[in-house]
Amino acid sequence: MDKDIEQEIAEAKAAFDRELQSGLWAKDVWYDEYHNLVFRLANGATLSIPISHIEALHEAEPTQLRNKYLANHGMAVFFPDLDVHLSVRGLIEGRFGTKDWMEQLQYYKAFVEEE
Fold first, then answer.
1. Residue 109 — very low, low, confident or very high, per pLDDT cuts 50/70/90?
2. Bridge-partner residues for 29, per DSSP?
3. Domain positions in the chain
4. Cα angle 13, 38, 87; round to 5
5. DSSP letters of 25-56?
6. What's the average model confidence in pLDDT over 33-51?
7. Confidence of residue 108 (pLDDT cuts 50, 70, 90)
8. Which of 33, 68, 92, 112 lies at a C-alpha separation of 20 to 30 Å from 57?
9. Which H or E run contains 8?
10. 3-state class (DSSP) for residue 87
11. Distance between CA 23 and CA 65 in Å, rounded?
12. Residues 6+ apart with CB under 8 A from 93
């Protein structure tokens, strides 16, 4: 095998190990009665995000939101009915959609806070 490829593989394995050690991956995920996507993280924290904030899910039906599973060792959640994969790390970091979507959320948030 090429040394460059071996180096890339070693770096990818090291990055994966760091991610696992961080605890910022999900042990469980559910859709709650308040229309939130809720994660129980490996580090003991709970993350709750309103479905209305997540671009790929905001128009989904409750039955579609209930049909989900964790993928990639808890680093992603997959909604097979919607063909949507979401990165747990991305959600933790507040990335809920495209740049345009995030700008709309910021506008909405500012509007609500002014009232």
1. low
2. 39
3. 3-114
4. 30
5. SEEEEEE-TTSEEEEEETTS-EEEEEGGG-TT
6. 96
7. low
8. 112
9. helix 3-22
10. strand
11. 24
12. none
Nearest C-alpha neighbor of 52 from the set 71, 66, 65: 65
CB atoms within 10 A of CB 31: 20
Q: Please give the model's pTM, rounded to 2 decimal places.
A: 0.79
Per-residue pLDDT tens digits for 53-94: 999 999 999 999 999 999 988 999 999 999 999 999 999 999
Which residues, 6 or more positions from 44, have their beta carbon under 8 angstroms from its beta carbon? 23
Would you call 85 helix, strand, or coil by DSSP? strand
Instruction: Yes or no: say if 82 and 69 are a contact pair by the CB < 8 Å rule.
Output: no
Class (C level, CATH) for 3-114: alpha beta
- Rounded Cα distance, 26 and 17, in Å: 15
H or E stretch at 84: strand 84-87
Q: How confident is the model at residue 30 (pLDDT cuts 50, 70, 90)?
A: very high
pLDDT in tens, 12-25: 888 878 777 777 88
